[in-house]
Design brief:
By secondary structure, the chain is an all-alpha fold. The chain contains 5 helices and no strands. It starts with 12 loop residues before the first helix and ends with a helix.
């Protein structure tokens, strides 16, 4: 049984992209050269002959383009490529939706708890690092104060001698 456009459901995104990509490829492959380039290539013909030959070329390319598109459409229908693409698209959508609701996907509250725990651990780690740095700074200040006292004592003892 042959399907018509009215019987077939609206094309899916994958089917639309396939058709669009094919048409873009065909257009770039079968784009005729400019009339100026054509005139340069066929410079040994007269101007009227060049124009007639160029019109024939454009007609042949247009006809070829239409025939190739028709053949592509027929091949896709015969091989059920469109149906397969639509089925793949449905399966991907179902899988994507199922993966959102599956039990293996963590709930928002689980993600929130994990994120909160990670942030608490990070805060605790940074607090420990800050306390360590403050202790090191205090030790350095004490050492600097001790060295200043020693310098002052040495200078006083030198002055006294």
């Amino acid at each position: 049984m042959e399907t018509t456009d009215q019987q077939r459901p609206l094309p899916g995104l994958r089917q639309f992209k396939l058709k669009k990509f094919f048409k873009l490829c065909m257009r770039s492959l079968l784009t005729s050269c400019s009339q100026e380039d054509f005139s340069k290539i066929f410079s040994n013909f007269s101007q009227p002959e060049q124009r007639r030959i160029y019109r024939v070329l454009v007609e042949v390319i247009s006809s070829l383009h239409g025939n190739i598109e028709d053949e592509f459409e027929t091949t896709c229908l015969e091989t059920k490529a469109y149906t397969i693409l639509d089925t793949v698209e449905q399966l991907v959508q179902q899988h994507s939706l199922d993966s959102l609701s599956s039990e293996m996907t963590p709930s928002i509250s689980d993600v929130w708890l994990d994120l909160s725990k990670a942030k608490e651990d990070e805060i605790e780690n940074l607090t420990d690092m800050l306390e360590k740095a403050e202790k090191e700074n205090s030790a350095m200040r004490a050492r600097i104060d001790q060295l200043r006292k020693e310098i002052i004592e040495n200078s006083v003892s030198r002055d006294g001698v």
